[in-house]
């Protein structure tokens, strides 16, 4: 099933509750929260207090994408704040297996993320213990960047591995997802679509979300 995960990075933080509700009315069904530490990525964003506030205004799953260097240290706090899903970058986890176990030990869904330069093969030993794999289709750090087409073959490979190995992780994609790219990622096999700028950048989040989901669902029908 295709799901849209609006990324609040592009939202107006002064009206966050309202913007999240609008995106949800348009069909957004997972709220994507980009956490950046100024070390792993050259930008700073939000942490557990924001997750705690969001928890009060929505029942949708909160998908926390940790772009931070020492995720193990913060997982308990995010869990406590109300996160439902936590993903960590393969590139920062020395003991990835352990980190994923820590996420699961808090009763949350565990995801692993790969940057555009990281091959999917680096995940072969953890695919059986993740709930989702997030393929970055931009270099993480900022919203509204251009989609990197190399993400498509990675999504296809992940879909193939899943079938070949009888696994059931979901495939998420993040970065540059908009009306001109959404059909390609869906046809490649992505089912969780993160979109920041395309939902919150201009106009009404509800209408934007509806249009994106419509384009995504139409692409599903065209899948062979
Ligand atoms: C980038 C973040 C993304 C970002 C996507 O580092 O991980 O979630 O918000 O933004 P758009 O959809 O604007 O490319
Ligand atoms: Zn993200």
> H/E order of the elements?
EHEHEHEHEEHEHEHH
Strand numbers in spatial order across the main sheet: 1-8-7-6-5-4-3-2
Number of strands: 8
Arithmetic mean pLDDT: 97
How does this model look, in words?
It is a single chain. This protein is α/β, with parallel strands linked by helices and 224 residues long. 38% of the residues lie in helices and 18% in strands. The protein has eight helices and eight strands; from the N terminus they run βαβαβαβαββαβαβαα. Strands 1-8-7-6-5-4-3-2 form an eight-stranded parallel beta sheet. β2 (31-36), α2 (48-57) and β3 form a beta-alpha-beta unit. The longest helix is centred in the last third of the chain and has 18 residues, at 205-222. The relative contact order is 0.17. The model has no long low-confidence stretch (mean pLDDT 97). The structure holds D-xylitol-5-phosphate and zinc ion. The site of zinc ion (ZN) has 6 residues, from β2.
Question: Nutshell version of this structure?
Answer:
The chain is an alpha/beta fold. Helix 5 (151-165) links the parallel strand 6 and strand 7 (170-174).
